[in-house]
UniProtKB/TrEMBL annotation, chain A:
InterPro entries: HODM_asu-like. Pfam families: HODM_asu-like. This is DUF3445 domain-containing protein. The lineage of its organism: Bacteria, Bacillati, Bacillota, Bacilli, Bacillales.
UniProtKB/TrEMBL annotation, chain B:
Residues 97-139 form the Dimethylamine monooxygenase subunit DmmA-like C-terminal domain. It comes from Brevibacillus invocatus. It comes from the Bacteria. It holds the Pfam family DmmA-like_C. This is Dimethylamine monooxygenase subunit DmmA-like C-terminal domain-containing protein. InterPro entries: DmmA-like_C.
Amino acid sequence: MSDQLSRFPYPFNSDTYRYSNNSVLLDPPIAIEVTPEYLEEMTLKRSLLANHPNRCYQSLPHTIPAQWEIASLVLHHLHETYPEDFSLTKEGNSWTFSNHKLNETQQFVFGDVSTLPWEPLDFVGRHVQEDLILMGQRDGDLFLDAGQLCFPANWSLEFNLGMNFVEIHSPIPGFANGNLDEKIRNFIMKLEVGQPWVRRNWSLNAGKRLDASLETFHQWGQMRKQVTAENAGETVYLRVEVQKLFRLPRSHAVLFTIHSYLITLHELAQNRAYLEQLYHVLVELPAFIAEYKGMKLYKQQVIQYLEYELQKERG
Amino acid sequence: MQKQRYLLLMDETGESASHDLRNELAASSLPVEVHPVTLESLHRSELTALLFRQWIGTYLYLLVSWPLLEPLRQLAEDAGFSEQEMECHGLGPHTRQVFCSACQKMNQTEDETVISCHFCGEELSVSEHYSKRLQAFLGYTSIR
Amino acid sequence: MQPKIHVFVKQIIQETPSVKRFVLVSKEGADLPAFSAGSHVTTFLNTAAGTLERHYSLVQAPAITDHYEIAVQLHAQSQGGSAYWHHQVSEGTELFISYPKNHFSLSFRAKHHVFYAAGIGITPFLSMMAELVAQGRSFELHYAAKSREMCAFYETLQKTYRDSCHLYLSADPDSSRMRPDGMRQQRIGTHVYFCGPETMVNQFQEAARSYGYPQQSIHFELFAPPAPMLREPFLVELWQSKRTISVGSDQSLLAALLAAGIKSPYSCRVGRCGTCAVEVLSGEVAHYDSVLSEKERAAQDVMMTCVSRAVHNKLVLSL
């Protein structure tokens, strides 16, 4: 098994897939993960932020205190988890953060936005592979209050900014069945300090592209028409988002981190158990879920490809 | 919640459509205050003062033409009215704003489900996904 | 299950003859976690009767994190919690507490906040008022106590919040009684908050609704100790599977179902995510989850298999 495959956050635990609250407690309680793709992804992220700032970063005015909480949490996690790569020193409110992987140092006064070149959330996001979303919790509801989103799976931060949880998820067919959207919202609203959660979300992508933004769908979406049973192994990727949820203590807001991983079907198929399970999941997957996950145009080709791989192994 | 009094704000369009509502409110035996509003009055201090001096227990009706509705609703919200304490009715011709996902500019449509973005030319399918902040529906691009 | 913080009692202050204030500091000497206004902590008390869990509001300003302060009133009918705090705890006593939790937060959109406190119910409002002052937002406090001597935090209130604070002393014939009708003449966008005995909270809630406060503008906190988990064995009849299985006293219902080969859904296994919910056809459920509302619990038609159990000796599930 390749290193990439052994590290891959495989998302399925059953032969059938339906929407559910598949969250579990996060242990260890670390919000970020640095992988071998770090340099490549940070370069891509920073170029996206430079070229498409409004697409990739949005924030409502009242979010600065919660943004500082996120900055503190993420910088501490980076330093404590990867001490050789990230240092954080504090003298009162005077903080110095060094990213030794990118050879950068930033000095600033914690709590004073004028001492940073970007808002705190925008600053700290430039040092991690994760997309960082701030959900404000107020007056009995949860709102998308700020976010740095460079690698979206076909949604728009700019359009969704300010929406509540149910509104954000209203385009997903079937997600409101059994009030699942409200149940997940209520679950998030009960999150407690010191007890973060994690879940995995998945989809298939035609072509390798982390920044699958809604804004550029008409460009990268074309690849969906080019998938064949012959090329599916190399052109179709399993995309998994590892999503972590942390309660921010002072603002009572929620940090939602999204770390996106891509692996080709061919690579994934090297694990027989994964190959078999993905095959069963896709064969059984209801059309409305397949469509929302973007695979309507090439699901059959993928299934044919997986069948071919399954027979190959047996033969 | 137990309403204590009604406040009805209407413009000319609203006035001609307000007959049934006013009868209903009159039958309730609670105090009813009616005030005319116009697009221009939005910027005057009397309207702001009127909304900001309301007591708890006041239920607000907005009966106005569409262009006036959202700014008036926002003013009421700033004054302290929550969704449970007001009812908004837009009247007359209504165009939907459509947010172009490709270029982020706003297009107008009455009831089309597919439009061409006036700015970048992309074909947009008008969805039901609505942003209160932008006051617009999301226009999705498609693959040809 | 929940992560805990090791603290010791640095100082004890007698606020009134029946209320003591305890200053708690981290055993490791570190800063304690920040918290939002209105938060409380659960204290885990090692009494002779076993570990008791009791919740207390944090009474200091949220900006302060080098220590926590809680105030405990000695109840005549103490089930052990307040008696333990008053008689067994001294300076230096070590204990474990939970991270701060907030079930009583300030409204973000309220134009004005009105607090009604009775007795020890004053405690959550102390951090809230400190926060509102820091944010420059408007509020008023109405606080009913027996007398000045029995009024916890009297000095703090007079010194810091004098202009916003209305005191009602029931044993003083010259003092007026705290009544709900003060809520009538408040501006639109006012939110009201109640903390005190259940009868007081219910009376004020009903009054607020009758004056025209929408439910979302009414907030309250009642301190009730969590129900201890009963761990008795019980039987479960599975309607669709046509089987009956037994659940041992130290086994969760979910574990028993899975061991019996039943494909019962689950995810978090700690009663929080809601994925393990199953339909209950008969039997009384002892709910120990954090998913269902009071109303849903009372309906007795759904349960979380990973933590909840039977009150008596049998349940019938639709599985």
